[in-house]
Amino acid sequence: MADTKYIFVTGGVVSSLGKGIISSSLARLLLSRGYKVTIQKFDPYINIDPGTLNPYEHGECYVTADGHEADLDLGHYERFTNIHTSRANNITTGRIYQQVIDKERRGDYLGKTVQIIPHITDEIKRSVKLLGATGKYDFVITEIGGTVGDIESTPFLEAVRQLRWELGRSACCVHLTYVPYLKAAKELKTKPTQHSVKMLQQAGIQPDVLVLRTEKDIPPSMRRKVAQFCNVSPEAVIQSIDLPSIYEVPVMMEEQGLDRIVLEKTGMPSDGEPDLSAWKKFLRHVENAREEITIGLVGKYVELQDAYKSISESLSHAAAYNDRRLRLVYVHSEKVTKENVDGKLRDLDGVIVAPGFGQRGIEGKFIALEWCRTHDVPTFGICLGMQCMVIEFARNVLGLEGANSTEMDHDTKANVIDLMEEQKSVTNLGGTMRLGAYACRLKPGSKAAEAYGRLDISERHRHRFEFNEEYRQRYEEAGMQCVGENPDTGLVEVVEIPGLRWYVGTQYHPEYQSTVLEPNPLFMSFMKAAIKYKETKGATQ
Ligand code: GLN
User: Fold this and answer.
1) For residues 427 and 328, what is the distance between their CA atoms, to the nearest angstrom?
2) Which residues have C-beta within 8 Å of that of residue 200, sequence separation ≥ 6?
3) Active site residues
4) Measuring from atom 8 of ligand 1, which residue has the nearest CA?
5) pLDDT tens digits for 35-80?
6) How many angstroms does the Cα of residue 203 sit away from the middle of ligand 1?
7) pTM as predicted
8) For the chain, what is the radius of gyration of the CA atoms?
9) Pocket lining for ligand 1, CB < 6 angstroms
10) Which of 31, 244, 458, 483 has the smallest set of CB atoms within 10 Å of its CB?
11) Residues 215-239: what's their mean pLDDT?
12) E strand or H helix at 394, and its extent?
Protein backbone atom coordinates (compact mmCIF):
# COMPACT_ATOMS: atom_id res chain seq x y z
CA MET A 1 0.00 0.00 0.00
CA ALA A 2 1.69 3.18 -1.15
CA ASP A 3 0.05 5.52 1.30
CA THR A 4 -1.27 4.02 4.51
CA LYS A 5 -3.66 6.29 6.38
CA TYR A 6 -3.35 6.62 10.15
CA ILE A 7 -6.37 7.28 12.31
CA PHE A 8 -5.83 8.14 15.95
CA VAL A 9 -8.58 7.64 18.49
CA THR A 10 -8.18 9.57 21.73
CA GLY A 11 -10.51 9.99 24.69
CA GLY A 12 -11.38 12.77 27.08
CA VAL A 13 -13.41 13.64 30.20
CA VAL A 14 -13.59 10.13 31.70
CA SER A 15 -12.31 6.66 30.95
CA SER A 16 -14.47 3.67 29.91
CA LEU A 17 -16.31 5.63 27.22
CA GLY A 18 -15.82 2.87 24.71
CA LYS A 19 -12.90 4.03 22.56
CA GLY A 20 -12.35 0.37 21.72
CA ILE A 21 -15.91 0.02 20.45
CA ILE A 22 -15.69 3.23 18.38
CA SER A 23 -12.33 2.14 16.91
CA SER A 24 -13.75 -1.31 16.16
CA SER A 25 -16.91 0.15 14.62
CA LEU A 26 -14.92 2.44 12.36
CA ALA A 27 -12.74 -0.51 11.33
CA ARG A 28 -15.86 -2.54 10.56
CA LEU A 29 -17.23 0.24 8.34
CA LEU A 30 -13.96 0.68 6.44
CA LEU A 31 -13.60 -3.09 6.01
CA SER A 32 -17.16 -3.24 4.73
CA ARG A 33 -16.14 -0.75 2.07
CA GLY A 34 -13.41 -3.11 0.94
CA TYR A 35 -10.45 -1.41 2.64
CA LYS A 36 -7.74 -3.31 4.48
CA VAL A 37 -7.67 -2.24 8.09
CA THR A 38 -5.93 -3.08 11.34
CA ILE A 39 -6.37 -1.62 14.83
CA GLN A 40 -3.73 -1.24 17.50
CA LYS A 41 -3.89 -0.17 21.11
CA PHE A 42 -1.26 1.92 22.88
CA ASP A 43 -1.59 1.62 26.64
CA PRO A 44 0.11 4.21 28.82
CA TYR A 45 0.80 1.90 31.78
CA ILE A 46 4.30 0.69 32.58
CA ASN A 47 3.62 -3.05 32.63
CA ILE A 48 5.19 -4.73 29.59
CA ASP A 49 1.83 -6.37 28.91
CA PRO A 50 -1.35 -6.96 30.94
CA GLY A 51 -0.44 -10.63 31.52
CA THR A 52 0.60 -10.08 35.12
CA LEU A 53 -2.32 -7.76 35.94
CA ASN A 54 -5.08 -8.86 38.25
CA PRO A 55 -8.37 -8.87 36.29
CA TYR A 56 -9.77 -6.42 38.87
CA GLU A 57 -7.32 -3.84 37.47
CA HIS A 58 -8.05 -3.94 33.76
CA GLY A 59 -10.54 -6.73 33.17
CA GLU A 60 -9.76 -9.82 31.18
CA CYS A 61 -6.40 -10.54 29.65
CA TYR A 62 -6.95 -11.36 25.99
CA VAL A 63 -4.59 -13.68 24.11
CA THR A 64 -3.65 -13.30 20.47
CA ALA A 65 -2.90 -16.21 18.13
CA ASP A 66 0.82 -15.42 18.27
CA GLY A 67 0.75 -15.74 22.05
CA HIS A 68 0.66 -12.16 23.25
CA GLU A 69 -1.16 -11.39 26.48
CA ALA A 70 -3.11 -8.34 25.44
CA ASP A 71 -5.53 -5.64 26.51
CA LEU A 72 -9.16 -6.73 26.32
CA ASP A 73 -9.86 -4.16 23.60
CA LEU A 74 -8.01 -6.43 21.17
CA GLY A 75 -10.83 -8.88 21.78
CA HIS A 76 -13.30 -6.25 20.58
CA TYR A 77 -11.12 -5.54 17.55
CA GLU A 78 -11.18 -9.20 16.56
CA ARG A 79 -14.88 -9.69 17.29
CA PHE A 80 -15.79 -6.69 15.14
CA THR A 81 -13.30 -7.16 12.31
CA ASN A 82 -12.92 -10.93 12.15
CA ILE A 83 -9.18 -10.37 11.66
CA HIS A 84 -6.47 -11.74 13.94
CA THR A 85 -4.41 -9.25 15.90
CA SER A 86 -0.86 -9.91 17.08
CA ARG A 87 1.85 -8.77 19.47
CA ALA A 88 2.38 -5.73 17.23
CA ASN A 89 -1.19 -4.54 17.86
CA ASN A 90 -0.70 -3.80 21.56
CA ILE A 91 2.10 -1.59 22.84
CA THR A 92 2.56 -0.29 26.38
CA THR A 93 4.77 2.40 27.88
CA GLY A 94 6.71 -0.46 29.43
CA ARG A 95 7.51 -1.95 26.04
CA ILE A 96 8.49 1.41 24.60
CA TYR A 97 10.87 2.07 27.49
CA GLN A 98 12.24 -1.47 27.30
CA GLN A 99 13.11 -0.95 23.63
CA VAL A 100 14.74 2.40 24.29
CA ILE A 101 16.72 1.10 27.25
CA ASP A 102 17.89 -1.91 25.21
CA LYS A 103 19.04 0.43 22.47
CA GLU A 104 20.83 2.61 25.00
CA ARG A 105 22.65 -0.42 26.42
CA ARG A 106 23.69 -1.50 22.94
CA GLY A 107 25.15 1.95 22.41
CA ASP A 108 22.76 2.79 19.57
CA TYR A 109 22.37 6.40 20.71
CA LEU A 110 26.02 7.19 20.14
CA GLY A 111 26.68 9.09 23.33
CA LYS A 112 23.51 11.17 23.29
CA THR A 113 21.48 11.93 26.43
CA VAL A 114 18.43 9.66 26.14
CA GLN A 115 15.25 11.67 26.69
CA ILE A 116 11.49 11.42 26.46
CA ILE A 117 11.66 13.73 23.46
CA PRO A 118 12.96 12.63 21.01
CA HIS A 119 13.86 9.07 22.04
CA ILE A 120 10.69 7.84 23.68
CA THR A 121 8.45 9.71 21.24
CA ASP A 122 10.50 8.41 18.28
CA GLU A 123 10.08 4.86 19.56
CA ILE A 124 6.31 5.43 19.89
CA LYS A 125 6.19 6.81 16.34
CA ARG A 126 8.20 3.87 15.03
CA SER A 127 5.79 1.46 16.76
CA VAL A 128 2.73 3.30 15.42
CA LYS A 129 4.03 2.92 11.88
CA LEU A 130 5.21 -0.68 12.21
CA LEU A 131 2.00 -2.30 10.95
CA GLY A 132 1.56 0.34 8.26
CA ALA A 133 5.09 -0.36 7.03
CA THR A 134 4.14 -3.96 6.21
CA GLY A 135 2.25 -2.54 3.23
CA LYS A 136 -0.72 -4.71 4.06
CA TYR A 137 -3.11 -2.01 5.21
CA ASP A 138 -4.95 0.98 3.79
CA PHE A 139 -5.79 2.15 7.32
CA VAL A 140 -4.08 1.70 10.67
CA ILE A 141 -6.35 2.76 13.51
CA THR A 142 -4.43 3.56 16.70
CA GLU A 143 -6.35 3.79 19.93
CA ILE A 144 -4.53 5.74 22.62
CA GLY A 145 -5.44 4.33 26.03
CA GLY A 146 -6.19 6.58 28.98
CA THR A 147 -7.64 10.06 28.94
CA VAL A 148 -6.25 13.32 27.57
CA GLY A 149 -4.59 15.16 30.45
CA ASP A 150 -3.17 12.05 32.14
CA ILE A 151 0.52 12.43 32.88
CA GLU A 152 1.21 8.98 31.45
CA SER A 153 -0.46 9.72 28.09
CA THR A 154 1.60 12.84 27.41
CA PRO A 155 4.43 11.21 25.38
CA PHE A 156 1.85 9.36 23.28
CA LEU A 157 -0.02 12.57 22.49
CA GLU A 158 3.25 14.29 21.63
CA ALA A 159 4.03 11.42 19.24
CA VAL A 160 0.56 11.76 17.69
CA ARG A 161 1.08 15.52 17.31
CA GLN A 162 4.37 14.97 15.49
CA LEU A 163 2.92 12.23 13.30
CA ARG A 164 -0.01 14.37 12.29
CA TRP A 165 2.37 17.09 11.26
CA GLU A 166 4.54 14.66 9.28
CA LEU A 167 1.71 12.72 7.70
CA GLY A 168 -0.51 15.65 6.75
CA ARG A 169 -3.72 14.42 5.17
CA SER A 170 -2.68 10.81 5.70
CA ALA A 171 -3.58 11.19 9.37
CA CYS A 172 -6.81 11.98 11.13
CA CYS A 173 -7.81 12.28 14.77
CA VAL A 174 -11.09 11.11 16.26
CA HIS A 175 -11.67 12.32 19.82
CA LEU A 176 -14.24 10.65 22.03
CA THR A 177 -15.75 12.59 24.92
CA TYR A 178 -18.67 12.44 27.29
CA VAL A 179 -21.72 14.69 27.44
CA PRO A 180 -23.31 14.18 30.86
CA TYR A 181 -27.02 14.65 31.51
CA LEU A 182 -27.73 16.45 34.75
CA LYS A 183 -30.99 15.07 36.03
CA ALA A 184 -31.70 17.88 38.48
CA ALA A 185 -31.19 20.56 35.80
CA LYS A 186 -32.69 18.31 33.10
CA GLU A 187 -29.83 19.38 30.85
CA LEU A 188 -27.06 17.92 28.74
CA LYS A 189 -23.74 19.60 29.42
CA THR A 190 -21.08 20.13 26.76
CA LYS A 191 -18.58 22.01 28.92
CA PRO A 192 -16.49 18.92 29.79
CA THR A 193 -16.19 18.22 26.05
CA GLN A 194 -15.05 21.77 25.36
CA HIS A 195 -12.44 21.50 28.11
CA SER A 196 -11.19 18.18 26.91
CA VAL A 197 -10.82 19.45 23.33
CA LYS A 198 -8.98 22.51 24.67
CA MET A 199 -6.60 20.18 26.47
CA LEU A 200 -6.03 18.21 23.28
CA GLN A 201 -5.40 21.47 21.43
CA GLN A 202 -2.93 22.50 24.09
CA ALA A 203 -1.05 19.32 23.29
CA GLY A 204 -1.01 20.56 19.70
CA ILE A 205 -3.65 18.22 18.34
CA GLN A 206 -6.73 19.50 16.55
CA PRO A 207 -9.34 16.73 16.39
CA ASP A 208 -10.99 16.16 13.00
CA VAL A 209 -13.97 14.28 14.37
CA LEU A 210 -15.68 14.41 17.76
CA VAL A 211 -17.71 11.47 18.98
CA LEU A 212 -19.90 12.46 21.92
CA ARG A 213 -20.91 9.64 24.20
CA THR A 214 -24.30 10.37 25.72
CA GLU A 215 -27.29 8.79 27.40
CA LYS A 216 -29.74 11.23 25.78
CA ASP A 217 -30.18 12.52 22.26
CA ILE A 218 -28.03 15.62 21.70
CA PRO A 219 -30.05 18.20 19.70
CA PRO A 220 -28.49 19.50 16.43
CA SER A 221 -28.20 23.02 17.84
CA MET A 222 -26.03 21.73 20.67
CA ARG A 223 -23.86 19.75 18.26
CA ARG A 224 -23.40 22.90 16.19
CA LYS A 225 -22.33 24.74 19.31
CA VAL A 226 -19.74 22.05 20.08
CA ALA A 227 -18.50 22.25 16.48
CA GLN A 228 -18.08 26.00 16.77
CA PHE A 229 -16.26 25.88 20.08
CA CYS A 230 -13.92 23.12 18.98
CA ASN A 231 -12.98 24.07 15.39
CA VAL A 232 -14.66 20.98 13.99
CA SER A 233 -17.11 20.95 11.09
CA PRO A 234 -20.72 20.41 12.23
CA GLU A 235 -21.16 17.09 10.38
CA ALA A 236 -18.00 15.81 12.13
CA VAL A 237 -19.70 16.05 15.52
CA ILE A 238 -21.22 12.63 15.98
CA GLN A 239 -23.19 11.31 18.89
CA SER A 240 -22.78 7.87 20.37
CA ILE A 241 -25.91 7.27 22.37
CA ASP A 242 -26.17 4.22 24.65
CA LEU A 243 -27.54 1.21 22.78
CA PRO A 244 -28.74 -2.20 23.97
CA SER A 245 -25.93 -3.97 22.11
CA ILE A 246 -22.39 -2.82 21.30
CA TYR A 247 -22.78 -4.49 17.93
CA GLU A 248 -25.31 -1.84 16.90
CA VAL A 249 -22.65 0.88 17.17
CA PRO A 250 -21.22 0.42 13.63
CA VAL A 251 -24.70 0.96 12.19
CA MET A 252 -25.24 4.07 14.31
CA MET A 253 -21.83 5.39 13.21
CA GLU A 254 -22.61 4.67 9.58
CA GLU A 255 -25.94 6.49 9.81
CA GLN A 256 -24.06 9.59 10.92
CA GLY A 257 -21.35 9.16 8.30
CA LEU A 258 -18.31 8.50 10.50
CA ASP A 259 -16.64 6.41 7.78
CA ARG A 260 -17.42 8.96 5.07
CA ILE A 261 -16.00 11.83 7.12
CA VAL A 262 -12.81 9.89 7.87
CA LEU A 263 -12.41 9.02 4.18
CA GLU A 264 -12.90 12.65 3.19
CA LYS A 265 -10.46 13.92 5.80
CA THR A 266 -7.80 11.49 4.61
CA GLY A 267 -8.41 12.23 0.95
CA MET A 268 -9.85 8.82 0.09
CA PRO A 269 -12.85 8.25 -2.20
CA SER A 270 -15.99 8.25 -0.07
CA ASP A 271 -18.72 7.44 -2.57
CA GLY A 272 -20.82 4.32 -2.18
CA GLU A 273 -21.76 2.69 1.08
CA PRO A 274 -20.31 -0.01 3.28
CA ASP A 275 -21.80 -3.44 2.74
CA LEU A 276 -23.10 -4.32 6.20
CA SER A 277 -25.47 -7.08 5.08
CA ALA A 278 -23.83 -9.94 7.02
CA TRP A 279 -23.46 -7.68 10.06
CA LYS A 280 -27.11 -6.62 9.92
CA LYS A 281 -28.17 -10.23 9.58
CA PHE A 282 -26.55 -10.88 12.95
CA LEU A 283 -28.30 -7.81 14.40
CA ARG A 284 -31.65 -9.09 13.15
CA HIS A 285 -31.04 -12.32 15.06
CA VAL A 286 -30.33 -10.22 18.18
CA GLU A 287 -33.46 -8.11 17.70
CA ASN A 288 -35.77 -10.99 16.90
CA ALA A 289 -34.64 -13.27 19.70
CA ARG A 290 -37.56 -13.35 22.09
CA GLU A 291 -37.05 -16.52 24.07
CA GLU A 292 -34.60 -16.37 26.91
CA ILE A 293 -31.77 -18.79 27.66
CA THR A 294 -30.20 -18.68 31.09
CA ILE A 295 -26.53 -19.50 31.41
CA GLY A 296 -24.61 -19.42 34.68
CA LEU A 297 -20.97 -18.40 34.80
CA VAL A 298 -19.22 -19.73 37.88
CA GLY A 299 -16.13 -17.69 38.66
CA LYS A 300 -14.44 -15.57 41.27
CA TYR A 301 -14.24 -12.23 39.48
CA VAL A 302 -17.98 -11.81 39.12
CA GLU A 303 -18.04 -8.30 40.63
CA LEU A 304 -16.22 -7.07 37.54
CA GLN A 305 -17.89 -8.31 34.42
CA ASP A 306 -15.04 -7.19 32.16
CA ALA A 307 -13.03 -10.02 33.73
CA TYR A 308 -14.97 -12.51 31.58
CA LYS A 309 -15.56 -10.28 28.56
CA SER A 310 -14.65 -12.77 25.82
CA ILE A 311 -16.77 -15.50 27.41
CA SER A 312 -19.84 -13.31 27.75
CA GLU A 313 -19.42 -12.03 24.18
CA SER A 314 -18.96 -15.56 22.81
CA LEU A 315 -22.12 -16.59 24.61
CA SER A 316 -23.99 -13.63 23.18
CA HIS A 317 -22.87 -14.55 19.64
CA ALA A 318 -23.98 -18.15 20.13
CA ALA A 319 -27.29 -17.14 21.72
CA ALA A 320 -28.09 -14.72 18.88
CA TYR A 321 -27.37 -17.24 16.13
CA ASN A 322 -29.64 -19.66 17.95
CA ASP A 323 -32.32 -16.95 18.19
CA ARG A 324 -32.19 -16.70 21.94
CA ARG A 325 -31.83 -13.78 24.29
CA LEU A 326 -28.97 -14.45 26.65
CA ARG A 327 -29.52 -14.06 30.36
CA LEU A 328 -26.12 -14.46 31.93
CA VAL A 329 -26.13 -15.15 35.64
CA TYR A 330 -22.83 -14.65 37.43
CA VAL A 331 -22.36 -17.17 40.23
CA HIS A 332 -19.67 -16.24 42.74
CA SER A 333 -17.61 -19.40 43.20
CA GLU A 334 -16.50 -18.36 46.71
CA LYS A 335 -20.14 -18.32 47.82
CA VAL A 336 -21.17 -21.74 46.51
CA THR A 337 -21.63 -24.31 49.28
CA LYS A 338 -23.09 -27.81 49.39
CA GLU A 339 -26.13 -26.34 51.14
CA ASN A 340 -26.91 -23.58 48.65
CA VAL A 341 -25.70 -25.04 45.34
CA ASP A 342 -29.10 -26.39 44.36
CA GLY A 343 -30.72 -23.00 44.84
CA LYS A 344 -27.97 -21.24 42.86
CA LEU A 345 -27.89 -23.57 39.86
CA ARG A 346 -31.39 -25.07 39.66
CA ASP A 347 -32.84 -22.54 37.24
CA LEU A 348 -29.93 -22.48 34.83
CA ASP A 349 -30.10 -24.02 31.36
CA GLY A 350 -26.34 -24.38 31.11
CA VAL A 351 -23.29 -23.70 33.26
CA ILE A 352 -19.81 -22.42 32.40
CA VAL A 353 -16.99 -22.84 34.85
CA ALA A 354 -14.52 -20.03 34.29
CA PRO A 355 -10.77 -19.93 33.79
CA GLY A 356 -8.59 -18.57 36.56
CA PHE A 357 -5.61 -18.92 38.81
CA GLY A 358 -5.03 -19.85 42.42
CA GLN A 359 -6.93 -21.31 45.32
CA ARG A 360 -9.58 -18.66 45.96
CA GLY A 361 -13.05 -19.86 45.02
CA ILE A 362 -11.85 -23.25 43.84
CA GLU A 363 -13.88 -25.40 46.25
CA GLY A 364 -17.07 -23.68 45.08
CA LYS A 365 -16.21 -24.68 41.53
CA PHE A 366 -15.90 -28.34 42.58
CA ILE A 367 -19.26 -28.21 44.36
CA ALA A 368 -20.91 -26.59 41.34
CA LEU A 369 -19.39 -29.15 39.01
CA GLU A 370 -20.47 -32.10 41.11
CA TRP A 371 -24.00 -30.71 41.07
CA CYS A 372 -23.91 -30.18 37.30
CA ARG A 373 -22.49 -33.62 36.60
CA THR A 374 -24.96 -35.45 38.81
CA HIS A 375 -27.91 -33.40 37.52
CA ASP A 376 -26.80 -33.78 33.90
CA VAL A 377 -26.89 -30.06 33.09
CA PRO A 378 -24.99 -28.90 29.97
CA THR A 379 -21.63 -27.83 31.39
CA PHE A 380 -18.62 -26.18 29.83
CA GLY A 381 -15.30 -25.97 31.67
CA ILE A 382 -12.72 -23.60 30.27
CA CYS A 383 -9.02 -23.90 31.17
CA LEU A 384 -9.09 -23.87 35.00
CA GLY A 385 -12.76 -24.86 34.61
CA MET A 386 -11.69 -27.96 32.67
CA GLN A 387 -9.02 -28.72 35.26
CA CYS A 388 -11.70 -28.46 37.96
CA MET A 389 -13.86 -30.94 36.02
CA VAL A 390 -10.94 -33.37 36.09
CA ILE A 391 -10.29 -32.85 39.81
CA GLU A 392 -13.95 -33.16 40.81
CA PHE A 393 -14.21 -36.40 38.83
CA ALA A 394 -11.09 -37.76 40.55
CA ARG A 395 -12.44 -36.98 44.00
CA ASN A 396 -16.03 -38.10 43.55
CA VAL A 397 -15.90 -40.83 40.90
CA LEU A 398 -12.39 -42.27 40.95
CA GLY A 399 -12.35 -42.09 44.75
CA LEU A 400 -9.02 -40.26 44.84
CA GLU A 401 -9.38 -38.35 48.07
CA GLY A 402 -7.60 -34.98 48.12
CA ALA A 403 -7.00 -35.10 44.36
CA ASN A 404 -5.94 -31.69 43.15
CA SER A 405 -3.85 -29.59 40.85
CA THR A 406 -0.34 -28.98 42.12
CA GLU A 407 -1.18 -25.30 41.56
CA MET A 408 -3.52 -25.49 44.56
CA ASP A 409 -1.87 -28.21 46.62
CA HIS A 410 1.77 -28.79 45.91
CA ASP A 411 1.85 -31.99 47.97
CA THR A 412 -1.36 -33.64 46.78
CA LYS A 413 -1.14 -37.44 46.58
CA ALA A 414 -3.27 -37.44 43.42
CA ASN A 415 -1.84 -34.75 41.17
CA VAL A 416 -4.36 -35.26 38.37
CA ILE A 417 -3.47 -31.76 37.13
CA ASP A 418 0.23 -31.04 37.20
CA LEU A 419 2.75 -28.42 36.15
CA MET A 420 3.84 -28.87 32.54
CA GLU A 421 7.40 -30.17 32.22
CA GLU A 422 8.49 -27.10 30.22
CA GLN A 423 7.22 -24.85 33.05
CA LYS A 424 9.36 -26.40 35.77
CA SER A 425 12.36 -24.19 35.05
CA VAL A 426 10.29 -21.00 34.66
CA THR A 427 10.92 -18.32 37.28
CA ASN A 428 9.52 -15.11 35.74
CA LEU A 429 5.75 -14.73 35.68
CA GLY A 430 5.38 -12.38 32.71
CA GLY A 431 4.81 -13.91 29.28
CA THR A 432 6.01 -17.37 30.28
CA MET A 433 2.84 -19.49 30.18
CA ARG A 434 1.93 -21.77 27.29
CA LEU A 435 0.41 -18.99 25.23
CA GLY A 436 -1.35 -18.58 21.92
CA ALA A 437 -2.63 -20.89 19.22
CA TYR A 438 -1.75 -24.58 19.23
CA ALA A 439 -3.13 -27.42 17.18
CA CYS A 440 -5.55 -29.93 18.65
CA ARG A 441 -6.72 -33.22 17.15
CA LEU A 442 -10.20 -34.33 18.13
CA LYS A 443 -11.52 -37.86 18.45
CA PRO A 444 -14.07 -38.82 15.79
CA GLY A 445 -17.55 -39.14 17.25
CA SER A 446 -16.87 -36.85 20.23
CA LYS A 447 -19.14 -33.90 21.01
CA ALA A 448 -16.22 -31.57 20.33
CA ALA A 449 -15.57 -33.11 16.88
CA GLU A 450 -19.26 -32.90 16.10
CA ALA A 451 -19.30 -29.23 17.14
CA TYR A 452 -16.37 -28.21 14.95
CA GLY A 453 -17.35 -30.46 12.05
CA ARG A 454 -13.69 -31.43 11.64
CA LEU A 455 -10.95 -33.18 13.57
CA ASP A 456 -8.05 -30.77 13.30
CA ILE A 457 -8.54 -27.45 15.00
CA SER A 458 -6.44 -24.66 16.43
CA GLU A 459 -7.38 -22.69 19.53
CA ARG A 460 -5.61 -20.30 21.90
CA HIS A 461 -4.08 -21.08 25.27
CA ARG A 462 -2.94 -19.50 28.50
CA HIS A 463 -1.85 -21.99 31.14
CA ARG A 464 0.99 -23.63 33.04
CA PHE A 465 -0.73 -26.77 34.27
CA GLU A 466 -2.06 -29.77 32.36
CA PHE A 467 -3.94 -33.04 32.66
CA ASN A 468 -1.62 -35.67 34.14
CA GLU A 469 -1.24 -38.35 31.47
CA GLU A 470 -0.58 -41.05 34.10
CA TYR A 471 -4.23 -41.00 35.10
CA ARG A 472 -5.71 -41.07 31.60
CA GLN A 473 -6.64 -44.77 31.59
CA ARG A 474 -8.47 -44.59 34.93
CA TYR A 475 -10.51 -41.65 33.70
CA GLU A 476 -11.41 -43.31 30.43
CA GLU A 477 -12.46 -46.54 32.16
CA ALA A 478 -14.69 -44.56 34.52
CA GLY A 479 -16.39 -42.55 31.75
CA MET A 480 -14.48 -39.30 31.31
CA GLN A 481 -12.80 -39.37 27.90
CA CYS A 482 -9.83 -37.42 26.63
CA VAL A 483 -11.17 -36.48 23.21
CA GLY A 484 -8.73 -33.82 22.09
CA GLU A 485 -4.98 -33.67 22.27
CA ASN A 486 -2.05 -31.76 20.89
CA PRO A 487 -0.76 -33.81 17.92
CA ASP A 488 2.89 -33.08 18.77
CA THR A 489 3.03 -33.50 22.53
CA GLY A 490 -0.09 -35.51 23.40
CA LEU A 491 -1.16 -32.82 25.93
CA VAL A 492 -4.82 -33.35 26.74
CA GLU A 493 -6.82 -30.47 25.32
CA VAL A 494 -10.43 -31.65 25.66
CA VAL A 495 -12.23 -33.95 28.09
CA GLU A 496 -15.86 -34.95 27.99
CA ILE A 497 -18.30 -37.37 29.57
CA PRO A 498 -20.11 -38.94 26.61
CA GLY A 499 -22.78 -40.41 28.88
CA LEU A 500 -24.04 -36.94 29.79
CA ARG A 501 -26.01 -34.40 27.76
CA TRP A 502 -23.06 -32.03 27.23
CA TYR A 503 -20.22 -32.08 29.68
CA VAL A 504 -17.10 -30.75 27.96
CA GLY A 505 -13.92 -29.18 29.27
CA THR A 506 -11.22 -27.53 27.20
CA GLN A 507 -7.69 -26.72 28.25
CA TYR A 508 -7.76 -24.03 25.57
CA HIS A 509 -9.84 -20.85 25.53
CA PRO A 510 -12.38 -21.02 22.69
CA GLU A 511 -13.72 -17.61 23.76
CA TYR A 512 -10.70 -15.89 22.19
CA GLN A 513 -11.88 -17.01 18.78
CA SER A 514 -15.54 -16.13 18.53
CA THR A 515 -16.52 -13.21 16.34
CA VAL A 516 -19.79 -11.67 15.23
CA LEU A 517 -19.41 -13.08 11.74
CA GLU A 518 -17.92 -16.39 12.89
CA PRO A 519 -19.22 -17.59 16.24
CA ASN A 520 -17.10 -20.26 17.92
CA PRO A 521 -18.40 -23.77 17.11
CA LEU A 522 -18.01 -25.06 20.65
CA PHE A 523 -20.03 -22.19 22.12
CA MET A 524 -22.64 -22.83 19.42
CA SER A 525 -22.80 -26.50 20.37
CA PHE A 526 -23.01 -25.68 24.10
CA MET A 527 -25.81 -23.19 23.43
CA LYS A 528 -27.74 -25.76 21.39
CA ALA A 529 -27.39 -28.27 24.23
CA ALA A 530 -28.63 -25.68 26.74
CA ILE A 531 -31.64 -24.88 24.54
CA LYS A 532 -32.47 -28.56 24.18
CA TYR A 533 -32.10 -29.09 27.91
CA LYS A 534 -34.42 -26.16 28.62
CA GLU A 535 -37.00 -27.65 26.29
CA THR A 536 -36.72 -31.04 27.99
CA LYS A 537 -37.19 -29.40 31.39
CA GLY A 538 -40.22 -27.54 30.05
CA ALA A 539 -41.74 -30.76 28.75
CA THR A 540 -41.40 -32.60 32.06
CA GLN A 541 -42.72 -29.77 34.23
N1 GLN B 1 -4.28 -21.78 36.50
C2 GLN B 1 -4.39 -22.75 35.47
C3 GLN B 1 -3.07 -23.00 34.75
O4 GLN B 1 -2.19 -22.20 34.81
C5 GLN B 1 -5.47 -22.38 34.47
C6 GLN B 1 -5.20 -21.10 33.75
C7 GLN B 1 -6.42 -20.51 33.09
O8 GLN B 1 -7.57 -20.82 33.45
N9 GLN B 1 -6.22 -19.63 32.13
O10 GLN B 1 -2.92 -24.01 34.12
Assistant:
1) 38
2) 10, 12, 148, 157, 175, 206, 207
3) 383, 509, 511
4) 355
5) 999 999 999 999 988 888 888 878 899 999 999 999 999 999 999 9
6) 43
7) 0.94
8) 25
9) 355-357, 383-384, 407, 462-465
10) 244
11) 94
12) helix 384-396
